[in-house]
Amino acid sequence: RPVTLQTPAGPADRTREGVPTCLVTSGPADETRRRILIPLWNCYKFFVDYAVADGFAPSAELRACAATGVRSAAAIAGLTERPEIDRWILSNLQSLAAAGRRELADFNAPGFCAAAAEFIDDLSNWYIRRNRRRFWRARDAADGDKLAAYETLYEVLVVLCRLLAPCIPFLTERMYLNLVLGQNPEDVQGDSDLPGSVHLCDYPDADHALLDAALNQRMAAAQKVVRLGHKLREEHNLRVRQPLSELRFAAASSETAAAVETLADVIAEELNIQRVLRADNLDALVSYAYKPNLKTLGPKCGRLLNALKTSIPELGDGILAPLRRGQSVTIELQGSTIELLPEDVLISTMQAASWISADDAGIQVAISTVLTPELLREGMSRDFVRHVQQLRKDAGLNIQDRIRIFLSSDDPQV
Questions:
Q1: Helix (H), strand (E) at residue 350
Q2: What band does 5 get if pLDDT is binned at 50, 70 and 90?
Q3: If I label 404, which of 5, 42, 72, 326 is the partner at 20 to 30 A Cα–Cα?
Q4: Which of 267, 223, 266, 264 minimizes the C-alpha distance to 122?
């Protein structure tokens, strides 16, 4: 079982014969397996399964580009024609490459692995999940969109192998050999001019021609709204398969609001919500009440505590809103300047009937919970699809296997 040695922080006298003691634990190894190894392998397996079923084979130019980083001017120009989500994951990949160069040069492997875990989560839970239909549908010779999906995911996986090779040497080698050379791990000999091992490849540099910081920020803002939406659904037992009618959002900055608005269709699809609407504020749906946290304010404010009990509720959201975004607020009280930290104020949320809300780092989200008969019927149809997919899995059917469905029910609603 993999274990990790950690040197605990503490006084220098906590040593044995002058040598710092170490804690032996499997916790970090389990976390790495859960956040990096298993999701990475699942992404690789997804690509291989569909590529084999579709007969996709990367071109020699694509294999060389992914393995060496050398890209022709024509290939760079072609990338601008790809769908936005393809350009986003490739842009994010360049950010990870820059982080790899920076962190590994400073011998900060844990810092790089943390960035890699975030990227793999984006790859698995955003890029692949949002693009499944591009891989599912039947392929024809003119289907450039499906080909772009294959080529994008292929390049991401190969470059990811090169980036992670110093930290995950064996798994990345197995993936690289199959993706680039089409060889078994036991056979590293071949006729290809490409490096015969991931460990013989140059470490990737960020390709600034593919780096789009504005696109990364727009997608990150949309992902934040989606995370808030999923959080609300989970807290209020509203499964994602049940469609809802409306989501409204407001942002602290007009730039963030505009970024989210451009991806409203993506958010609606991710959260299974019919309409996503921008609002200047959500005051009609959500309000906040503020009270002093006596445990933290008492020791540092002393004689002003009674005055704070009165003044903090009166200040309201207009002044104290930054606290909800994790920022501090400075106020003047009886000739003294007081800095209020987020933990110094207790915040409660009051919502309009049939609405639920959440906020995080400058973005507010409110979702309508009204379920019409039409929404309930659509939710049942999605449940039906899920049951069929589970039956396919239980029967051991392959992706390309076709089925016939027979339905019988005594429930008139079904």
A1: strand 345-351
A2: very low
A3: 42
A4: 223
**How far from the centroid of its chain's Cα atoms is residue 352's Cα?**
30
How many residues are there in the chain?
414
Spatial separation of the C-alpha atoms in residues 22 and 17, rounded to whole Å: 13
Q: Identify the pLDDT of residue 25.
A: 54
d(CA 97, CA 203): 9
Angular region, 10: left φ>0, alpha ψ -120 to 50, beta rest: left
The answer to whether the CB of 226 falls within 8 A of the CB of 99 is no
Tokens encoding 171? 């798994």
Q: What does the alpha-carbon distance between residue 155 and residue 82 come to, in Å, rounded to a whole number?
A: 14
10 class by beta-carbon count within 10 Å (0-12 exposed, 13-18 middle, 19+ buried): exposed
Among candidate residues 201, 185, 191, the one with its CA nearest the CA of residue 65 = 201
- Cα-based angle 374, 367, 266 (whole degrees, multiple of 5): 80
For residue 335, the tally of other CB atoms under 10 A from its CB is 6
pLDDT digits (tens, 9 = 90+) for 352-400: 888 998 888 778 899 999 999 999 888 888 888 888 888 988 888 887 7
> Angle 234-238-242 (CA atoms, 0-180°, nearest 5)?
135
pTM for the full model?
0.75
Report the half-sphere exposure of 148 (CA within 13 A, side-chain side): 19
Contacts for 40 with CB less than 8 Å, ≥ 6 apart: 120, 160, 164, 168, 171
Asked whether the beta carbons of 294 and 305 are under 8 A apart, the reply is yes
Q: State the Rg of the chain over Cα.
A: 26
For residue 2, name the pLDDT band (cuts at 50, 70, 90): very low
231 — pLDDT class (breaks 50, 70, 90): very high
> What is the distance between the alpha carbons of residues 12 and 187, in angstroms, rounded to a whole number?
51
Tokens for 381, please give them: 């149809």
Give the span between the Cα atoms of 254 and 113, in whole angstroms.
33
